[in-house]
Amino acid sequence: MTTHETASTAAAGSAPSPKSLSDGLRYGALFGPVVFGVTAAGVALPDVASSLNTAPTATAWVLTAHALALGVGTALFGRLADTRGVRAALLLGSLVLAAGAVVCLVAPDLGVLVAGRFVQAVGSGAMAACAMALTASVPAVRRARAFAGFGATMAVFSAGATLAGGVLTEWVTWRAVLVLPALSLLVVPLCLAGAPVRKTSEGETGRAMDLPGAVLLTITAMSFLVLIQSSALALSTPLVTAIAAVLLLSAAGLTWRVRRSETSFVPRALVADRVFLKAAVIGVGVYGGLFAALYAVPQLLVRDHGWSVLSVGLWLLPGAVVGAVLSRLAGRLTAGDRGNRLLGAVSLVFAAALAGSPTGSGVLLLLLGASLGFSAFSVTQVFTTALMSGHIEPARRGGAMGLLNLTFFVGGGVGSATAGALAKSMPLSTALGLVALFPLIAALAAFSLSRRAVSRPPRP
Known about the structure:
With 460 residues, this protein is mainly α.
């Protein structure tokens, strides 16, 4: 435990208080609508394609762009919370989130819609980063109770996301579904009052952010995702070559900056930290499988089985409720003890369900695969937040957790992009089965996490 946490613990007393639970509920409500941008939007994709008269493979960018921008937003605003304070990050993120939502509501075509989703997701990433930073800042003696509240609230949003997506798509409009992440704005005033303002001597507040490093990281992630989707987007060979060159140059520049700069946007200590890297692999695997399922399953149910979008949302609800229960359980388990076993088991079953999709077993495995994806998503978010809270020093925690979630959401974008690209040359159900490798790798990484490794802090 760090000196900062020890002092906080002493001030808080030796017993958990009801305030810990209420803090967890409030911070969970700030993060919760972020889930709608993933799960609810996936349910609405068939209507997006038909309304805008675009190919289903192209609509994968509604999720892919959102995933990339959400990751970028969590990384940028997580770092901003470290350098300028959580309040500044919350206020600026709220403006970005609101602007993106307005663009999504009025977008006349897919290109403008994807741009609006990108902007909205950056703001939504700010809400996620601030929620995680606030939750992690709870004194250690009260942290387990706070995580229980955080997990319970996340569970409610996860459980209701598919139904909300189906109901709004069927009875209102798919546009309302795509702006559901803006609900976080309602909770911002409740979180501003409790947002800590660190002094420069206690953390990194006041230090400049490495904007060149942030730009290089964003370009690297974006060009990588575009390359994966190049076949689905029917990009020309010269354009693909140019994008590949941009990827190599930006990745080389980012690597050079990490190695040479002590204040790099991606700190060297994190790149060399085994626990952080394993947590990143877990998130990439789980999110990659989930985003692929959210891209493929609604399309398969609507196109091949004649389901309505509302029916998809209703039938995915029971599985989301199971995910809610598991998320609540994950909030009570100790990171690196039983929490990693729960996450590994859920990810393994998730992988098995996706692998069985091409066997022709019908809707059962499709529903099971998506439902287990919700469960793995909820458990991953609660578990990794708890893991990093005890592993990363407070002064760097916001930026570290933001970067971790950047890898998660880029992994999600890779998952949906991979499924979309594979669907150009094989049945969509077969493509979904191949994506099972993502959660399988996540399960192996989760089981390999040892309690001893988790308790060892990274070197500065």
